TrEMBL record, chains B, E:
It comes from the Bacteria. One of its GO terms (molecular function) is ATP binding. CDD domains: ABC_Carb_Monos_I. Gene3D superfamilies: P-loop containing nucleotide triphosphate hydrolases. This is ATP-binding cassette domain-containing protein. The keyword Membrane applies. InterPro entries: AAA+_ATPase, ABC_carbohydrate_import_ATPase, ABC_transporter-like_ATP-bd, ABC_transporter-like_CS, P-loop_NTPase. Keywords: ATP-binding, Cell membrane, Membrane, Nucleotide-binding, Repeat, Sugar transport, Transport. Residues 10-253 form the ABC transporter domain. SMART domains: AAA. It comes from Hydrogenophaga bisanensis.
Automatic annotation (TrEMBL), chains C, D:
InterPro entries: ABC_transp_permease. This is ABC transporter permease. It is found in: Cell membrane. It comes from the Bacteria. The chain crosses the membrane at residues 12-28, 40-60, 93-113, 119-140, 161-184, 213-234, 255-282, 288-309. The lineage of its organism: Bacteria, Pseudomonadati, Pseudomonadota, Betaproteobacteria, Burkholderiales. Its main location: membrane. Pfam families: BPD_transp_2. It comes from Hydrogenophaga bisanensis. Keywords: Cell membrane, Membrane, Transmembrane, Transmembrane helix. It is a multi-pass membrane protein.
């Protein structure tokens, strides 16, 4: 029986997070002698594109499919069909809803990631009253909602639970919410407008590190970069470097490379022995901060750089 | 042919049409009698096309009144005029260039297939339309090989024949033609004059705009002379000379200076 | 005369068709899995949603318009029909009618703004694109809806011809193309669509109510988007508020690949089907070849240009 | 005669301008922070990238073309100039020249495909959109580049007039609009751009080398995209491989809001500037009002339609 | 005026142009002598426009040769013909509708500003162009109020005057006019004839396509009769009758049946 074929479907092509994930999968597949097919949705949230990719990979003979679901619910029927044909489906990074729709989940908890930076931010501000701006992803995106709501929860504000797709916090001290699309330029524009709205902002939550970098630009232009705490999520190498430079106060680090490598290994195992993996494996979140605060566990920048994207 | 006792089929009073600072029609009057060929002549820019556009609903005049068979009408669009049985050949040839000759001839009144297919599904009878088109165009003796040719592939004159054939075929009440023979050869031009006569003989009045004085004098029952957006005079081609007509048209003479029997 | 008539279809469809064939030949040499009936059934299934949207888009482009809102309207339709079924427990046919009703209403709004207020279609549909998206998010609370009655899913079911499982939705799409093709060729309103796109002023002067034709086209397009909503729900088994984000460009691409002029009045609806298939074949074939997705994008870019260039050349040949 | 000449500009620009003013008045009543010089300087700064892209887009649309690839070409230019500087340590001017060189090359490719192979601009730029995107991702490895020499960032620096900090890039944008406005109005090549868009066949018959005009327009557009790359790098302080994804629709929107016809030959470049400002003012004003983002999208949709409807009405009034 | 000893300015041999199944030119010959007005007449679809499109580079013939001053030329585009000093008024009026009259007159050869502004920056001298336009159009006695009016707002005849004025103003070598008087009024038509004469008197030969026989007989030195894509005959209007000419044109008579002195 030939080379095992494994499919990897990410949300988009362009997010460094998924690029790293693909690199990890590629390296592991080469090591284990498997053939890796990869595809992605056209935009974040493109469920139909992921369904199409899944069908095409099955047509190409993939027996294991690794997927970072763009839409945790909408993808489920397609996964069911695939599993009914004997394909092992593993969710990476984010779970499906219900969780049991896939054979296994290798993921970080985005809500948890949000909580960590929320807790950090609370401590970092000391007793100062918080004036918060959030730079979110875009309307309707679950990861955007989970990180945002987790952050509010960690900060001690009333927040929707992990399943909600709605952004909380409107009434509770968040003075400005803008969409950044996870993009540097749009993050910057959002921050500029927020500052215009309320110049006293002293805490900025950002969906990811490019948005954080954009926010920093805006704050710097306004001469406020020293007075504001920026927190973020992802823990990419560039992002951790920004933590080192003081651009970002703290970020929650996730490990896409690790998830992907584990997924590929499980796929090869399945092809060779017919044994499926199952259940939820937390690939971990860690808080990376240049200045640790008491009461919140964090790793330093050096460790963060070593681990960024899950290099090791 | 034309007889003062004939009823007025179309009448317009004090039509005004302004385009920004240009006044195309400046209080123009107009009268068309039953069963006549009325030629409308005038210098370039005298407002002939503007006049007939107002009469055919293609533009809505800013002021003035239009009567059809003595009834006040208010054409808001060419559809209204169509419904009233007025058929028009426009100077800038209203044809759909990418469509075939047959389709252009029948545009807006396609022949339906018999039965349900035609009435409910509005399916068209292409074969019949093709045959009819060939017949109509043969009337005009135009040497066009294929009715399924796109109009944009036709020569200038051939295109004009399509527009003329369409108007002649479908008019119920009045036919208006804005320079139908301008691009036509001698033979084709004569065919169109012949066609106009035949239409008139069917009893429909025809409004003919033309710069071709020999044509006008050959065929018109009365001549409406347009000048500077107004009606300068209506003359009788049987009584007036071509040079006097041109003199009125260019403003070298006024209507008052003409012998009374020249007026119509 | 006959030889001229018989020459008309090729000019419109032969070019895209040649491009499609070339693509198929190429992929067949690259992957032995490509040239199977099962795989073609799969491709058909994958293009059915965008294929049906592209019918509406073709109608609009034939009138020299453009519709950017098509995908979002489709998404809204999907959310409405699934939510009505899931939340209010209405039966599938009623829920479907509600969904298609909403997309048709949006078509009507587009049409009224284009005909009555005389706004350019690009701007109108850019506006309704945003409006439909926002309503979709607000109405669905950005939640995917998954409790869908079976009666809404049967178009996603398959039947077998030999070994090949064909999805009903694909058959519906092919049927719609056939109907619209005949309607455009053989009925008076169909010819008026071409006339309006070809020369709106001339068409108006012949006494055709061009506004009514345009309005009809936008409303019909709304109906097709509604059918696409249903297909999308049936295909993915969910009402997805994030659906439809790229379908506008995809549909316009299919239309243009299919040889319809963006300036209106010229084109053949079957070309659009071929155009949609070209896109589907590329995506499928490249995945089968194991081309990674950035390279897929690169190759798609090059191939889109090549496909239309082939078309262009084959037209020259035909003259 | 004079009164007619003096009437020309309004028809093209008054409408959008009225829409812009109305939007400003509205937002001024909603937020006291809106009507400050600092806020306007900010809006100017936020629209400068899309504003410069929209200059190139206007030129192309004036020739009855369209450019979907503009944003991606801009992103590629940004990556090239930052990567050349960061990786090979070349000086800022050389790196900038490399970046603009690449965008100009893409403009040239677009132009050659449109003029020599006679492909529709929509398809050509759809192809190069994908190609530029893929090259950007591959060349940058999807990584943002941040070690940027200062020489590349000074357009992002500000100078002060009174209290108001104005960014140099915004001044550059305004200057470019002025230059292009004069060039389109007062030079022979500028008039030929209008002529080609207005009636390509007639223009060809008067003996103007229409292909050269078109090619020139696409190449110039490439140059403007390169300048936009530089502005984008200066504004964000980074070479961002994910930049430019929505700039094509944004730029086309600005052009159309500005009153330029998508059918070519009619429009005024200053209208595009107003169009870009309308978009910027909406985004800024709605954020200041604290409108949440789904509602922002809804409102933007409605306002885009209203803005052009205002334009339409004010034109009727002008007649 | 026309003299067999005059050198041939333009000559074409065996031109063939096919459009799909339609053969517009079927081996047409053509000769234009120095300083003459050569009228080209023929039925609609006889291939007149196709002939002059080939001579002016607007289309490239499938077969045949064209000579200018005895030199073989190969016009690939109108630009080539322009460079050779050939100026053409096309039947379908090659104007840019949204641009002003002045701009249309000078399209492709705008007057540059003096100095650097003109030579380096290619800036145009709008004022001078406006003045020149007024002068040119006054020559034709066309009552157009403003040269900054868009051409699309003109009447059919006014538009034609723009095209004619352009050709007459810029020709260096040969002027070709495809039905320049078709849409013109009596006065304007005569002005154009006058203009054509003036151009000829400057020493430039003129090719005039027209369906207006009185015009043709009034002005032409020789008449080229086109029929079915070929040259049926070249006749001398001083010697031949109008009816014989029409007979040849419509095929009722062949060139051989004409008296030899009628031929030119
Ligand atoms: N749409 C328009 N916008 C502005 N001016 C116009 C428009 N249509 C016509 N005009 C002006 O109105 C006047 C009358 O035009 P009209 O077309 O009625 O003349 P006409 O008598 O038909 O001339 P011709 O014999 O040349 O066809 C002209 O001066 C023309 O420039
Ligand atoms: N682009 C084209 N495609 C197909 N056929 C064409 C095309 N151009 C001209 N023809 C055909 O070639 C023939 C000659 O056309 P041409 O325009 O030369 O005639 P013409 O002598 O100028 O006629 P007219 O006096 O009506 O202007 C016509 O039968 C016409 O249908
Ligand atoms: Mg007229
Ligand atoms: Mg001709």
């Amino acid at each position: 029986q030939g080379q095992p074929v494994i499919g990897l479907i990410t949300k988009t092509e362009t997010n460094p997070f998924f690029v790293k994930m693909k690199e990890g999968a590629d390296a592991e597949a080469r090591k284990l002698g498997a053939k890796l097919l990869s595809a992605a949705g056209k935009t974040d949230g493109d469920n139909a594109g992921q369904v199409t990719a899944m069908e095409n990979m099955m047509a190409a003979g993939a027996k294991t499919i690794l997927i970072t679901p763009s839409d945790s619910k909408a993808i489920v029927p397609a996964i069911k069909k695939a599993r009914a044909q004997g394909v092992m489906v593993i969710a990476l990074d984010s779970p499906t809803d219900p969780l049991e729709a896939t054979d296994a989940l290798f993921a970080t908890n985005n809500y948890k990631a949000g909580e960590l930076i929320g807790q950090y931010a609370k401590a970092a501000l000391g007793g100062k009253p918080a004036v918060i701006a959030t730079l979110d992803l875009f309307p309707g995106h679950p990861v955007g909602a989970q990180r945002h709501n987790g952050f509010l929860k960690g900060f001690g504000l009333p927040a929707p639970d992990a399943k909600s797709n709605e952004l909380g916090g409107k009434a509770a001290g968040v003075v400005c919410m803008a969409d950044s699309f996870g993009d540097r330029a749009k993050g910057q524009t959002g921050m500029e407008n927020c500052l215009q709205k309320n110049p006293n902002i002293n805490l900025v939550y950002t969906i990811n590190e490019p948005a954080a970098a954009g926010a920093y630009n805006a704050l710097k232009a306004a001469g406020k970069e020293k007075d504001v705490v920026i927190v973020s999520v992802d823990g990419g190498c560039a992002g951790v470097a920004d933590v080192g430079k003081g651009v970002i106060a703290a970020t929650s680090q996730q490990y896409p490379l690790r998830m992907a490598a584990m997924g590929v290994a499980a796929g090869v195992e399945y092809a060779r022995t017919g044994k499926k993996v199952s259940g939820y494996t937390d690939t971990g979140v860690a808080l990376i901060a240049a200045k640790p605060v008491s009461g919140v566990e964090s790793k330093d920048v050096k460790t963060g750089m070593d681990l960024c994207w899950g290099n090791k | 042919m034309s007889d003062p006792n004939q009823p007025l089929v179309m009448q317009a009073k004090g039509l005004v049409k302004r385009y920004g600072q240009v006044t195309a029609l400046d209080g123009a009057d107009f009268e068309l009698r039953a069963g006549e060929i009325l030629a409308v002549i005038g210098d370039n820019g005298a407002g002939k096309s503007s006049l007939i556009k107002a009469l055919s609903g293609a533009t809505v005049p800013d002021e003035g009144e239009i009567y059809l068979d003595g009834q006040r009408v208010n054409f808001r669009s060419p559809i209204d005029a169509r419904r009233a049985g007025i058929e028009t050949v426009y100077q800038d040839l209203a044809v759909a260039p990418a469509m075939t000759i047959a389709e252009n001839l029948f545009l807006g009144r396609e022949i339906r297939r018999p039965g349900m297919l035609g009435s409910v599904f509005q399916m068209i009878d292409k074969k019949k339309m093709l045959q009819e088109s060939i017949a109509r165009m043969n009337d005009l003796k135009v040497g066009i090989r294929s009715m399924t040719q796109a109009v944009e592939t036709l020569s200038g004159g051939q295109r004009q024949c399509v527009a003329v054939a369409r108007a002649a075929a479908f008019a119920q009440h009045v036919v208006i033609m804005d320079e139908p023979t301008a691009a036509l050869g001698v033979k084709e031009g004569n065919m169109v004059l012949e066609l106009i006569r035949r239409v008139r003989d069917k009893g429909l009045p025809v409004i003919l705009i033309s710069h071709n004085m020999p044509h006008v004098f050959e065929i018109a029952d009365r001549i409406h002379i347009a000048r500077l957006g107004k009606r300068a005079a209506v003359v009788n081609p049987k009584k007036i000379s071509m040079s006097d007509t041109v003199a009125v048209m260019t403003g070298a003479m006024t209507a008052e200076q003409l012998a009374p029997e020249c007026l119509a | 005369m006959n030889s001229l008539t018989s020459k008309l279809p090729p000019i419109g469809t032969l070019g895209p068709f040649v491009a499609l064939l070339l693509a198929c030949v190429f992929f067949a040499t690259q992957s032995e899995r490509f040239l199977t009936s099962q795989n073609f059934a799969l491709i058909l299934q994958q293009v059915m949603v965008v294929g049906v949207i592209a019918i509406g888009q073709t109608l609009i482009i034939l009138t020299a318009g453009i519709d950017l809102s098509c995908g979002m309207i489709m998404a809204l339709g999907g959310i409405v029909m699934t939510k009505v079924a899931a939340d209010y427990g209405l039966s599938a046919p009623v829920a479907i009618a509600c969904g298609i009703g909403v997309t048709t209403l949006f078509g009507l709004i587009n049409g009224l703004l284009v005909t009555k207020v005389k706004l350019p279609p690009f701007i109108v549909t850019l506006g309704t694109l945003n409006i439909a998206f926002a309503i979709t998010q607000l109405y669905s609370n950005s939640q995917t809806i998954t409790d869908i009655p079976d009666g809404m899913l049967w178009l996603g079911n398959t039947f077998r011809i030999g070994d090949t499982a064909i999805v009903w939705g694909a058959i519906l799409m092919l049927f719609l193309y056939l109907v619209v093709w005949i309607a455009l060729r053989e009925t008076a309103p169909g010819r008026h669509v071409y006339a309006v796109g070809n020369s709106p002023e001339a068409t108006r002067l012949t006494g055709i109510a061009t506004d009514k034709v345009l309005l009809g086209v936008y409303v019909m397009a709304g109906v097709f988007y509604g059918i696409a909503s249903l297909l999308s729900v049936a295909r993915t088994g969910a009402g997805d508020p994030n659906a439809g984000q790229t379908e506008n460009l995809d549909a316009i691409t299919a239309v243009v690949l299919g040889g319809t002029s963006l300036f209106g009045g010229r084109g053949i609806i079957l070309g659009t089907l071929v155009g949609a298939l070209i896109v589907g074949v590329f995506r499928n074939g490249l995945t089968l070849m194991g081309v990674s997705s950035v390279y897929q994008i690169l190759v798609t870019g090059i191939l889109v240009i090549l496909a239309v260039a082939t078309d262009q050349l084959s037209r020259k040949g035909a003259r």
